[in-house]
Design goal:
By secondary structure, this protein is mainly alpha-helical. It has one domain. It contains six helices and no strands. The longest helix has 14 residues. The radius of gyration is 15 Å and the shape is globular.
Length: 123
């Protein structure tokens, strides 16, 4: 049996890169941070946001191990600066396909903004 990506996965990957070349950076960043998440190399505010994102991510994404919109691998996606791809889908479509209009998470915040977010949301 061959290992690697099937043709459909390759097409999705090329489409994502074509739409936004930053997806390459997010992929590298997410895997790097995920592999090092339990070390001193990853800053506390990044780890806290990962935990927050993990709790607030669409349960379908967690269950299937990848984002239902962009097909990025979860939980690695949650360590990247990339915001939830659900933002790209119109609210009406989100309600129809996913049963809610919830956006799982915004772009990863810097330390100062994360502290402010925690205060505002009583986290």
């Amino acid at each position: 049996m061959k290992k690697g990506l099937n043709w459909e996965s390759k097409k999705r990957m090329f489409k994502m890169v074509k739409e936004d070349p930053m997806n390459i950076w997010y992929f590298i960043q997410g895997y790097y941070r995920y592999w090092l998440r339990n070390t001193w190399l990853i800053r506390k505010h990044i780890k806290e946001q990962f935990e927050y994102r993990l709790k607030n991510t669409n349960s379908k994404c967690i269950e299937q191990g990848s984002c239902v919109v962009c097909t990025c691998k979860v939980p690695e996606l949650l360590m990247a600066d990339k915001p939830c791809s659900m933002k790209k889908i119109p609210i009406e479509s989100r309600m129809f396909f996913f049963g809610n209009d919830k956006i799982c998470f915004e772009k990863m915040l810097n330390k100062k903004d994360w502290q402010q977010f925690k205060i505002e949301n009583e986290l």
